[in-house]
Amino acid sequence: LNDRRFWFAFFASLIPGFALLHTYSRGGLVSLASAVIVILAFRAVPLTRVRAATLLFAAVAFVTYGAHISAARRWTQSLVHDDRSVENRVEIWKNARLMILDSPRGWGRGNAGAAFMSWYEPLGHREIYRTLVSSHLTWLVEMGWCGRLLYVLTWSAVFSFTFPLGAPRVFTIICAIWISFFVGALFSSTAESPFLWIIPLASAGYASWKRIILRLKISLWRITIATTLGFIALGAYLASALPHKESVVIEADPNLTFIGK
Known about the structure:
Elements: H1 3-23, H2 26-41, H3 49-68, H4 71-80, H5 84-102, H6 112-120, H7 135-142, H8 145-162, H9 170-187, H10 198-214, H11 220-239, E1 250-252, E2 257-259
């Protein structure tokens, strides 16, 4: 990465960085941090002293400006005070496990939010949900087991395909894009927007072109490891719900419905 490209990328990233601060989004911040970690871990950008000093200054300015507009207070609010946004997400994450286990065929497209409100939302809560505030959980709940397994396989294939080890340096950027996109979809329903798929899909297309012209193969062990880790993560998430899973008896007649005994 020559100096001209570095400075172009640096100044171009200031605009989305500025916009991110004004969203006050903690999920967006975690998504950005995950991408930065990938880029630094695989050394996608060779750092000279000038570049390192510039990035350090930008990081300090980022945090300082965030504090100035009270974004930092929003980011750390849950560490000091009760935060209903965080509490609601935790409640959804806990119950989404049960929703998956309780419905092998899935709850149906577009029904995740309504199903949660009807059967799993704690009594006394009045929040209204269209989704489960997470693209991944929403789709896993709405799909049946065939779709769920295919979903894990698809993401495993994406990370195997974009993993930068043994590939040109640009693959680190592509991998960072997909990891950032994946992490963002954990904390919000971002992946349901077609426009947000443009950059990830364009980067995947470029990666495909590079693999074809350079004849870069994807090793079987990489696919196996990615797939195994994906299924382990899903299995561990669902297994953590088993101690909390209780059978509920539901009986009904034409006039009354009894839940539990």
